[in-house]
Design brief:
single chain, alpha/beta, Archaeosine Trna-guanine Transglycosylase, Chain: A, domain 4, Rossmann fold, 3 domains, seven-stranded parallel sheet, four-stranded antiparallel sheet, 28% helix, globular, binds calcium ion
Length: 511
Amino acid sequence: MAAPRYIRVDERDNVAVVVSPGGLPAGARFACGLVLTEAVPEAHKVALVDLAAGAAVVRYGVTIGYARRAIVRGSWVHEGLMDAPAVPALESCPLATATPDPLPPLEGFNFEGYRNPDGSVGTKNVLAISTTVQCVAATVQHAVRRIKAEILPRYANVDDVVALTHPYGCGVAIESPAAEVPIRTLRNLVLNPNFGGEVLLVSLGCEKLQPAQLVPAGALPVLADQPSISVLQDAQQGFGEMVASIMALAEKRLQRLNQRQRVTCPASDLVVGLQCGGSDALSGVTANPAVGIAADLLVRAGATVMFSEVTEVRDAAHLLTARAASPEVARDFLREMAWYDDYLRTGGVDRSANPTPGNKKGGLANVVEKAMGSIAKSGSTALRAVTGPGERVTQKGLVFAATPASDFICGTLQLAASMNMHVFTTGRGTPYGLAAVPVIKVSTNSGLAARWPDLIDVDAGRIAAGAATVEEVGWEIFRLILEVASGRHKTWSDRWGLHNELALFNPGPVT
Ligand code: CA
């Protein structure tokens, strides 16, 4: 058996994470002389010192909880032994007090992408068929199946045809202030760089959300003689006519998309969305810090890097406002946190609704520990901008795009924010994928990568085993992003066609 190993993230930490595969039994002795007083599962915490009742439990150099009773050195420090710290008060968060200096620029890194008329760059060439309302979803999905079988094979340069279907558009309080979130999400989804400005929109006719509200005039660079909207209630000859109409409009768009060619683009044209799902205690030790290195490389190369998931960063708000590029950016961040606090309060919950039972089984005691592990993805650069859910991101550098932590809602909102590459870290494992952009999945532990070699693209668990450094895996992720964005390497989710449904964030009432 290999020598017992743990990882201590920060020298101030009084707990460390056991990284030996399968965990360790009582009596296991580490190289430093520490002996376990009881069995500790893999990815769970061990006390490095004796902790008195009420003592701060420190990881990442910050307090992640308080000991409920005395904990002796070598014990398993689990959820049941810790009280979570109070949530940081938003009004006392520091504003841009610790803005990091810019890192040296990184030049000479390119990828092959599809340059769009608006200057954005696609990493895939996809025909999207958007919808105003749920009523048309099944018809559009039927049409898409036929387009893929009968028409798409003639347009070899187009990767896919995607139906942007959703349960919104009617039977909802469309005048509610909160309706702005799903409506702008649908509007901005259409503008995702991978759709090349050639989106087709299908409407029912009588729905509340009308095409003109969803796609304002001039938003799509379509030819005046080629209507981009199909209204099903205009059909005089039944379902067959509806489907034929959608297919005919789709073919015109396929003809134009088929002419797109990849050209060499600087890495600064990347808009990379970061997310995690099914996190464990190793997320913040291996995968997320490695993604953080990749995030710093991307920012140095001039790209946009988005991180999200409000409930996972909420308990690190004071650290992120300090890191903001200006007090205005910090206030924008606090505005999004306050909006989400209100949203959760209205729903009768608070941030303790996160983490999940799977997170806890994976070793995460509470949302504070999860937040610290989550923000490791954001690297070390200044926070340059903050956007609300479903808003388009236009700034370069590190951006916080506020979204829920739900994998599918976050992914959908990041697509609306104009993401053209997605990096997803997972500890417990998920076969997550999106049709619109490539998803690179990074496992936090080698056990998952070994069990799912045909789903996981990068094994960051090698860091825990001492087989690779955080910097090495960070560079590997950065280079893989360029390969995948160029279409030279397919991610596992694209090889299998694992394309999850979009999920809108609708904080407003349903009528
Ligand atoms: Ca997530």
